[in-house]
Specification:
The protein is an alpha/beta fold. Helix content is 36%, strand content 17%. It has eleven helices and 14 strands. Strand 5 (115-119), helix 5 and strand 6 (149-152) form a beta-alpha-beta unit. The structure holds pyridoxal-5'-phosphate. Pyridoxal-5'-phosphate binds at residues 95-97, 100, 123-125, 175, 179-180, 208, 210-211, 236.
Length: 383
Amino acid sequence: MELFDVYALFDVEPVKREGCYVYDDQGNKYLDLYGGHAVISIGHSHPLYVQKLTDQLSRLGFYSNSVKNSLQKELAYRLGLISGYEDYSLFVCNSGAEANENALKLASFHTGKGRVIAFRKAFHGRTHGAVTVTDNPKIVAPVNHHDHVTFIPLNDAEALDEALQNGDVCAVIIEGIQGVAGINCPDADFLVTAKTLCEKYGALLILDEVQSGYGRSGKFFAHQYAGIRPDIITVAKGMGNGFPIAGVLISPQIKPSKGMLGTTFGGNHLACAAGLAVLEVMEKEHLIENALATGNYLKEKLSGFKEIKQVKGMGLMLGLEFNFPIAPLRSLLVQQYKVFTGSSGNENVMRLLPPLSLTIEQADQFMAALSSALTLLFSKNQQ
Ligand SMILES: Cc1ncc(COP(=O)(O)O)c(C=O)c1O
């Protein structure tokens, strides 16, 4: 059997990893400014993470949600403390798309309504419910009809007010920072208005922090820059540092009923051990503060590159906008300079989503590689 060929791959097979680096089978060492798509939060193969997962696996790797699981309770408790959402409750599942599916269902159950407002260029996942609120015709199949969804421009308060006026909307779903689109930040004022309008018209505000959450923006959640409290928050990527785990944080006004949500694998013992190890390392090593400091350093230095039109984003979720498509530059960075970077839905925007433990020295190493790669690329183009 062959693999179903759907991914655009780097021509590299990592076999080993450590901190902000991965190694291929030839022993080449790559600096990882991509973090396996914003997933590696505390660094590759962190010793405490490896130890906690190994210990847990040797005791009990999995049992389903039909029994008590104190690890899930502890995860909810610790996540509440670190995020500032102690009064919310947590539903644990497996992926970002699944978290958003459950968020949309909860909003619909709670309000009894069925319309949704989403944003142009949004990405919320590839499963049915998540893809209906995703603005990318290439990944929306005919079965994913989305007549119940209105897409409006990001940061357009008037359009949001108009779309909510019928009173039939159950949820407004928005990314903390649009990631796949190429790092577009909602304005703080807009988020405040969105929250007010949702309250006025009886809709819930869902913040998709799957990519921007877990400290990546320099705060635990990107929306915390705006000082708002959404009704529902979804998390995934950085939550397990590579072990599949996701969550839905639910405000106290939304009440559960038995059987309303569920999952076979979600919140299993090994996944919770990964989630707990991530939070422990994040706190002990002050990784959120590091994401902010190293991110600000990168932002300031990269803004001085004449080839870069704009540096977007916050913390270690950055978008470098060039005046030209970045595909050849990214290939050169991998092949010649051994640096991984991310692409985006905007062909001119390179995404940086490194582990939150990225040091200033590693940031410098990246910028030296980028500078050399740009020089080489332009000298080649002139020949
Ligand atoms: C903002 C956002 N939401 C949801 C998802 C989907 O997450 P997953 O691939 O874990 O289903 C992604 C994935 O890139 C994302 O960036």
